Amino acid sequence: MSQLVKLSGFFPRVLKPFEYFEPETIGEATQILSRYGDRAKLLAGGVDLVPKLRRRLLIPEYVVSLQWIPGLDYIKSNGDGLKFGPLTLLRSLELSPLIQRDYLALYEAVYQLASTQVKTTGTAVGNLCVATPASDIAVALFALRAQLRIAGPSSERTIPIEDFFLGVGQTALQSGEMVAEVLVPRPAAGTGQAFLKLVRTAADIAKVNVAVALTLADGICQEARVALGSVASTTIRAGKAEEMLKGKAIDQRIIEEAAAAAAEETRTITDIRSTAEYRRETSRVLVKRATGKALERAKS
Amino acid sequence: MRKIEKETVNFIVNGRKYQPTIEPWVTLAEVLRDYLDLTGTKVSCGVGECASCTVLVDGNPTLSCSTLAITVRDKNILTIEGLAKDGLHPIQKAFVDCGAIQCGFCTPGMILTTKALLNENPHPTREEVKRFLAGNLCRCTGYVKIIDAVMAAAEAMSKGGK
Amino acid sequence: MGQEFAFVGKRLAQADTPIKATGAARYAVDIKLPGMLVGKVLRSPYPHARIKRIDKSKAEKLPGVEAVITLEDTPKILYASSFRDLPMAPSGSLQRADEYILADKARYVGDAVAAVAAVNERVAEEALQAIKVEYEELPFVTHPRDAIKPGAPKLHDYAENNIAARVSYPLAEGDVEKGFQESDVIAEESFSVTKQSSGHMETQTTIGSVDPTGKVTCYSPCQLSFPLRRGLAKIFDLPEGMINVVNPFVGGSFGARLSVYNEPIAVALAMKTHSPVKIEYSMEENFTCVHTRTGDEYTVKMGFKKDGTLHAMQIKILTWAGAYIGRAQLAGGIMLFWGMGHYRCPNKAGECEVVYCNTTPSAAMRGYGNPEVMWGVEQVMDMAAEKLGMDPLELRRKNIKKVGEPSNLRLPIESTYLEDCIKAGAESIGWQEKWGRKKEGLKRRGVGVATMMHCSGAYPLLIEHSGAIVKFNEDGSINLIVNPGSPGTHIWGTLSQIAVEELGIYPEDAHIVTGETDKTLFDLGSHASRSTFVTGSAVLMAAREARGELLEWAGRMLGVSPDELEVKDRRVYIKADPDKGLSVSEVVRSAMWDMKGEAMNIAGKSSFAPTPTSVSPPTAAYFAEVEVDTETGEVKVLKLITAVDCGTAINPMTVEGQCEGGIQQGIGYALTEDFFVNKETGVLESDNFTTYKMPGSLDMPETEIIIINKPDPKGPFGAKGVAEPGLVGIAPAIANAIYDAVGVRITDLPITPEKVLKALKEKQS
Q1: Helix, strand, coil tally for chain C in percent (to 5)
Q2: Exposed, middle or buried: residue A269 (CB in 10 Å: 0-12, 13-18, 19+)?
Q3: Distance from the A199 Cα atom to the nearest Cα atom in chain C, whole angstroms
Q4: Buried-most residue among A22, A56, C127, C191 (CB within 10 A)?
Q5: Is C203 on the interface with B (CB under 8 A)?
Q6: Are C391 and C381 in contact (CB under 8 A)?
Q7: What is residue C356's three-state secondary structure?
Q8: What are B73-119's pLDDT values in tens digits?
Q9: What is the C-alpha separation between B129 and B141, in angstroms, rounded?
C-alpha cells in the first residue's frame, strides 16, 4: 500500500517519533521485546527499517537498537561450520576468504547484491528478519542447511532456516524473541554450490533466485539441496527436485527433469517485478543452470 | 539499558566537533543538513536505493538517510565538505577534469564512495569500479565519465596525491 | 575542415563543477531563508473524487501551523502547467487551461487538495493529518484506451469522451490513401510506449517569498524562468516586474521541469504567512506528481516503391495525458512532426488524440515525442527493409533528407550529416560482418540501427527568443549575463567557450551571471535542445558587439582604425604589426576609468530569435549490439554507438556526456523503466528507484560516441543542439538488434524478458 493512501493524503519526508532503547545484553533486548510485542522493532543496520519508518510502512512505538550489545558482530568457524552474529555486516561476509572458499553459494549471493552501501551498513540477519521471499541470503542459506539460534526472554532454541519463514514479512519469532546467531554446517567434501538470480537491473531485488548444493561421492549424489526465492510467499525448497537428484549419477537429463519438477513446486505470483508465468518458467531454467554449475563444481 | 528521549551528543564531522541536541528519530542526513548546515550531503530517494546521501562513518560508506543519527554519536564522519582541506582532493579534481559531473546531485555520494573504494583498493579495474559504485545512481552521465574519473583519481593518487 | 579555433572544440572542464564536487553548490533543497517555513501538500488518496467539504479548523489550531489553504484561499484562476495557455507561438496555438493551484476535484492519486505552512516538517505532517476532507469517490479510469470508451468516467466537463484535444498533422502532403495504393510494399504495425519518469535526483523543491513591498521571489528549479514569471503574474494578477524567478543549481531536469508544480502553492502560502515557504517533495511525491513523458499507443504505416523509395506514410496516435493536459497536447502532437519528418515522403498524414485519465499528467521528457515515435517508425523501417529485401541501412540512406529539403519542422535544412553518422556507426559496430547472419545457440547476438532528426529549439512552434549581455571588467575578464540555469547540461561552459572565442580571451576570463529573471535579459528557457544554438547565438552577437567596442577604444589608443585590429590571447594588436598592441585589460581599464569625460562601458547586448532560414536540425544514428538469452528472454546490451551530427562540437567532452547520459536513459526506456499504476487503486506503484528501475553502473554497456563535427552554416561557430538527441533512437536500435538476434519484434515498451520469452515461445509454436 502506498503511504499516501495509508496516511490518507501525504508523502512523509521525516520519521514519526518513537521511544528508543539501547539494551546492553541480549537478555535486556528480549525482555523489552517481550514487554512491547509487535509494537517494538529491532534496529540493526537500519537499511530496511529506517526507510520503512519514514514511509510509514511500519509504525512502531518502540525501536530497540542492538548496537550496544557487545559481541554481536563476528564470523567464526571451526570444523563444524560457520557462525555469524546479528550485527555481522553483509560486507564482512563478502570479504571473508573462508566464505569465498567454502560457502560459495552464500558468497555469490552477497557478491551479487549490487549496492556497496547496503552491504557496508546492512546485516545478514537483518536481511533474513525482513522475511522477504526475495531474499538472496535466505536462498543461499537454505541450500547450505543453515540453522538459526533464537534467543527469547527465558530460553533459547535452534531451528532450521526452513522453519523460520512463515509468510511475507512473517517469521517464526515469538514475542520477545530475536535471532542470536546463524549457524551454517561445514559442507561435506565433494559438495558443489551455485547461486543464480534474475533481476531487472543489477541493483534490484530478485525476480527469481536459486541456490543449489550437491554433495557427490564416487560420482553419486549423496545430498541435494535446491532452494528458490521470489516464487512463493517464502523462500522454498524444491523437495521433489532434490529427491530426483539424490542417489543418482546426475546427467543432463536428470537435471532437466529435476528442474521441471522444481518449477512445479513454485507458487508464483504476478507483481511489479515480473509475472507468475515467467517466474515459473525461469525457475526451471535457473534450477537447471545452477544444478549444472553445482555439479561441475562438485566434480572439480 | 538506556532509553534516550533527547540527548546532546558529540559528532566529529570532518575533524570538527559538534554537539547538537537530537531526538532518536532524527536521521544522520537531517543532522548534517538541517542542524549543521552541511548541505553537501544530498538526500534523493530517502530509501537507501540511490546512495547520493553516502557519507563515511569511521571510513565506512554509510547511507545517511537510512541511519539514525543517535547510532553514530562519537564517531568520525566524513562528508563531502571535509574531503579536501584546501582546494580539490584528487578525486574531486578527476571528477571535474573528466566531465564526470553534470547536475552534480549524485556527485558528493559518488566521490565519497570512490574514496572508500580507493582506500580499500588503490588500483581497481574498471569492472571493480563499476561494481563498487553499483548502488550509486546517476541520471545524467551514463556513468562512463564517472568511471573514467575514478580511474584517473586512482592513477593520480598513486603518483603521490592523497 | 573549417577554421582553427582557440577554445571552441576543446575538451574543457566545466567552471561550475568544482563547487558541485565540494558540496558548496546550493540547490533549491539546500537554500534556507531567514524565518523560512515548511510547506506541505495534502494530496488525494483517491484516483477520482468529488471534494465535498474540507475542515481545516483543527489543523489551523495546531501549535506551529501558520497557514492552511484550500482552493477557496487561492486566486482560483485556471492555468496550464505548460504555460501554453499564454500565447507563445506565431501560429497562436493555445492549450487549454485546466488546472487550479489546488484541485476543485481530485483527478488522480496525488492530486493537490490543500496545503499547509508550518515551523517544521513534522508539524506540517501533523497538520496535514488533522485536515479532514470529505470525499465522494467517483468511478475512475487509469488508461486512455479505457478512458475513450463510451460511458467511461469523465474527468473534465468540457472534454467529451475524455478527449482533451485532437491534433491533425499540419504538414500533411499529397494524398495518403492514393499513396498507399501506389506503393509496392506496405509495412504497418501498432506500438505502445510507457510514461517514462524523468528520474531526476533532486526532488521538486520550491521556495516562495514575498517582501514587504509585495515583490515576489520564487526559487524554482524550473527550465522556463520567464514563462514561469508570466504564469505566476497571470495567476496572482501581478505585474511581471513584481516577480523575480530565481533558478538555483538544479539536480536534473530532463524536461520534467518545463511544467509548473509547487511554485504557485509556495507563493500562495508565502503571501498568506508573510514568510518564505519552502515545499520539498519526497521522492515518492516526486514520482507521483512530477509529469512524465507521454505514454502513447499508435500505428505507423509506411508504403514504399519496389526500389525502396518511401511513397506514403501515416501515423495515428492516442496520447495519454493523465489527469490534466500537462504538455501532452504538444508532446503528442509533435510526434507527428518527428515521426514523418526525417524521411522524404510525398504523401503523408496523421492525427493524434490526447486523452485524459486518472493518473499523473504527462508532459515533456528529453526528446519530447521523438523517442516515443521513433520507437515505432524505426522498427517499421526495418520491417519494410525485410519485405523489400534490402539492408536497413540502405533503405534509410535512400530516404533521409538532404540539404535544402524541408526539415521535420518544415524549415529548409542548412546542414545534415546523417549519412556520415550511418557510415561511421556501421563501420564501428561491424555491420557488414554482423547484421543478418544466422544465429544459433542459447545466447544469440544481433545488431540493430535507428536514426533520427531532432531540432535546435522549437521554432517555429514557439518563439525562441534569447538575450545575452557581455560586459568587460577592467581586468580583461567578462561577465556573461544569460538566463539558462545549471541543470547539468554544461551550458554555462558552452556559452563561455563561444564568448571567449569571439573575444580573444580565455575561458577562465568568463564569469557567468545567471539564474534570475531580475538580472538577465529575456530567455525562453532550457528546452528543445535550444540553448547552445539559440542562447549561444545571442551570446555570439553580444560578444561581437563588445568586441567592436573593445576594438574601437583600442583603435583610439593606438591611433588606428578598429578594422586594422585583431584580438587574441587577451591582447589587442595591429594586424599588420602584431608586436604593436595592448592587453585587453589595458584597453578596458582605460575606457572605464577615462578621466576626459568620454568614459565608456565596453559591453554588448543582444536579442536573438531564429528565422525560417537559420535553424538546422541535429541528426544521429544509433547502433546497438545485444545478446539475447533464449531461455530467460534476458537482453544484454553489449555495445551502443551513437554517431551524432550536432554541427561543431563546442566542447566534445560535453557532447559525449550528453550522449552517454542519453544512452543510460535510453536503455532504461528500452528495457526496465515502467510507469506502473495499480488498476484497482489508481496508485502509482513505481514511485521510487526501488520500483522504477533506472540503469546503474553495472547495467551500462560499452559505449562509443562518434561526433561528426562538421559545422552548420548558421549555428554559433557552426553548432547545433545536442542535449536530447542522445536518447531518441536507443530503444528502437535495441529492438531492431533483438530482432536480428532472435527474430522476434517487441512493439510495446519496455522490452522486458517476460515479453521476449513469450514472443520466443509464440514464434516456436
Answers
A1: 30, 25, 45
A2: middle
A3: 9
A4: C127
A5: yes
A6: no
A7: strand
A8: 999 999 999 999 889 999 999 999 999 999 999 999 999 999 999 99
A9: 15
Q: Are A75 and A92 in contact (CB under 8 A)?
A: yes
Sequence-ordered alpha helix ranges (H) in C624-688: 652-667
Specify the 3-state DSSP secondary structure of A174. Answer: coil
Give the C-alpha separation, C123 to C63, whole Å.
8
Q: Do A272 and C686 touch (CB under 8 A)?
A: yes
The beta strand positions in C357-414, using DSSP E, are 362-363
Say if residues A214 and A291 touch (Cβ distance below 8 Å): yes
Q: CB contact, 8 Å: B101 with chain C?
A: yes
Question: Hey, is the C-beta of B62 within 8 angstroms of any chain C C-beta?
Answer: no
- For residue B120, what are the CA distances in angstroms to A109, B61, B123, B158, C249? 21, 11, 9, 13, 33
Instruction: Write the CA distances from C390 to C285, C304, C308, C393, C625, integer angstroms.
Output: 49, 12, 8, 8, 20
Under a CB-based contact definition with an 8 Å cutoff, are residues C51 and C103 in contact? Answer: yes
C606 bridge partner residues: C468
Closest to C521 in 3D by CA, of C486, C492, C473, C480: C480
End-to-end, the C-alpha distance of chain B in Å comes to: 42
Strand, coil or helix: what is C401? coil
Q: In terms of CA atoms, which chain A residue is nearest residue C115?
A: A10
CA distance C199 to A109: 28
Q: Which H or E run includes C133? A: strand C132-137
Contact A204 C693 (CB under 8 A): yes
CA distance C462 to C464: 6
* Cell matching residue A123: 546485516
Coil, strand or helix: which one is C140? coil
- Interface membership of C460 toward B (CB under 8 Å): no
Query: Residues of B with CB below 8 A from C203's CB?
Result: 44
Q: Which amino acid is at C401?
A: K
Q: Could you identify the residue written with the cell 575514478?
A: B150
Q: For residue A45, which phi and psi values (nearest 5 degrees)? A: -75, -25
Assess contact for A241 and A258: CB atoms under 8 A. yes
pLDDT digits 0-9 by tens, C677-733: 999 999 999 999 999 999 999 999 999 999 999 999 999 999 999 999 999 999 999
ipTM of the complex: 0.97
